[in-house]
Design goal:
40% helix, 14% strand
Amino acid sequence: MRSRTLLTILLAIAMASCGKHEPKAKYVFYFIGDGMGVSHVTLAKLYADSVLHDSTAMSFTRFPVTSLSTTYAHNRYVTCSAAAGTALSTGTKTSINTIGLTYDRTDTLYSIAKKFKEAGKKVAILTSVSIDHATPAAFYAHVGSRGSYYDIAKQLLKSNYDFFASGGFLEPYGTKTDSNAVSVYELGKVRGYQFTSSLTEVDSLVAAGAKSIVYSAPNPAPSSTLQYEIDRSESDVSLADITRKAIEVVDNPNGFFIMVEGGKIDWAAHDNDAATVIHEVLAFARAIDVALEFYRKHPHETLIVVTADHETGGLSIGNRENKYDFHVKLLHYQTASKERLHKVIAELREQNPKAKFDDLLKFLADKTGLSKDIELNENNIKMLKDAYNVAFKGLKSNEKTTYSETDPISKVSIQILNSKAAVGWTSGSHTGQPVPVFAIGSGQQLFVPLLDNTDIPKNIARAAGL
């Protein structure tokens, strides 16, 4: 009897001791690759290994914990970024297009970012798209429609988070129908927010004791986003740049929470633009590497979690035309996103409306490698000629995609290049496939086995002791 009692006491002491000394995650990085499925990660890894010959480019794929997560919404198996973002931020399922509210929009859901802030930690929200888009909004806003950009932006000003960085706002001056709206910038100044388009000025604002700083890229791409990585010049800000700056702003002895969204992985996948997807995932990976630099300095107090809100495009590595062959190296010849290609083709039409088909082929050879480095068969040439005839006859041939606009020539060119590289797409929208989860640091063991997206923020909070 005594031995049993003694054993019980010893077990209780051991359990208490383990709990007492278990390190908590003081510094948390939450990376969300919008639309980034397993195939998107695999494709970027293949490209990094076989084209760039850089075995370190996708370091997050070597995190000690790797798992999968389901993504379905409350009312639909194939989710949207609003519902998925809410699940990833609050730990609760909601309905399509809803942000920070219950599925019936009758009650408020609060994000883990708010919990970190209430616990005395600093918070930063970063994205490569606009700061009022669905995923970043899910960490501070509560709206029944993800398209309520002005309302979302106003709620950003109520969050009192420490740092925001993105391509900018979509409706900073209010909706087109509201002529009496006060701009977000004016409202923000009243609340003590500082707005800037200079990373250098961010340092000055911090030194001056600024409470909340909102950084927007000085040279945004359409829809207030960062430039696609494939289109980015050296002077354009990158996701890694703003991640590094965010750490400088919020690093403090009490800890922090930083959410980083690679939002344009999703946009490129909606466009079925494989080369651009690759460069966006690589840019996302470089931002994660910045967090890894911090982790190596504080390995017992830092947690990095990488996941996605859903898969976009139904991306496949391998297609019917190539059977078992795969030619990812061909994507190296594409030097502009489909979105940028559309822009320069429009400029070509304007400057040379009587351009001949051979002129177009020379142009495409420079931007995509088609007809020069990549051989075209008779069917490819016919497809391009048909697109040329439509585009250069002055017909209204442009086509709206989810987040951009394209034309027959851009569309067919990227389609041919994808096909020859053996990259397949089943959709221009989202799919219901599970998405990857990667974790390293304090609490990493919580992110296995198969997860639901609602488990991830709960486990982050648990790792942080919230």
